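Handout, section B. The chain below has 325 residues.
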Amino acid sequence: MLGMADPRVKQALAEWGQIAPNLGLDPSQFRSKLIWQKDEPTRSHIVVRLRGPRTLIMKRAFLRPAGDDTNLTIAALQDASSRLEPYPNAHAPEVLFTSATGDLVLMSEALGKTLDDHLRKGRAHSKMLKRTGAWLGAFHASSETEERTYQPSFMVRHCERLANEVEAGKIDVVDPEYFVSCCRMIRHKEKDASDQKTVSATKHGDFNLRNIMLGPNGETGIDFKPLSSAPVGFDIARILLDYAELFQPNADLKSGVILSGETLDAFFDGYDVVKRNDPGVTFLPFVQLLNDWRQIPTLPARRSWRQKARYEGITVLAQNGFGNT
């Protein structure tokens, strides 16, 4: 960890010095701090906070995986920021500058702390989930929505394909026999969700506990995936499973479910595009649980502290939701 001495930081700050005057800003009035960095064989980027007359965030990518088009994620951010302007408490960062390649982007700072930070500091779960639901409701409602008939067959095939690949030895998962049994159970979960009405909207794409900021001026979504449309249950399942695996009290769970009534009550006290009985909301959390399970390293020694905590939660939720299949 080189910190501010990192050559990548020096290069990014030099580029900032050239950009700032064109934005009517004096770079000498800003202090810089490296707040995030990643340096891997296929991915290298840094995030720098620039604090002065206003606080800005600069992201600079130096290496991206093949096929990763940053301009698409920037376009999604710009779309969200524009659509949420009429909402006093729901925000997305404003993009002030982006390079032609999308490797450097300058944006306004999202105020507050992540939902993950708030929960770890003991803030009331119900209040935080309500605020999160309110932001996602505004984000979905501000896009073009469409009523659809929900068809879970694609996700059923996805889960059965996962089971086949595990049985064939193509992918490794923790507790493979139980994982395969749970994947096969998805078809039984499908029945109650098929041919019911749902709503499709622009989706965030990676709406997890660390991609929503709760601050004094409201809530701000960050780190959007490229623009696409899907049933709203996809974003809802993503955030609520992230919460359930890491924070949901096990005592609140009833047999056969993975999201407690308390969790759903709190979230849907803020979210109003669909209700908690939406077919995507009732079905997709089971699929999300399997997707998260698949990402846990099979060797315990290779798991981060967060992955260890997540797998403990996944084990409880799988046994409660799928049973000892």
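Note. The chain has two domains: 3-109, 114-322. Compare this with the example in section A.
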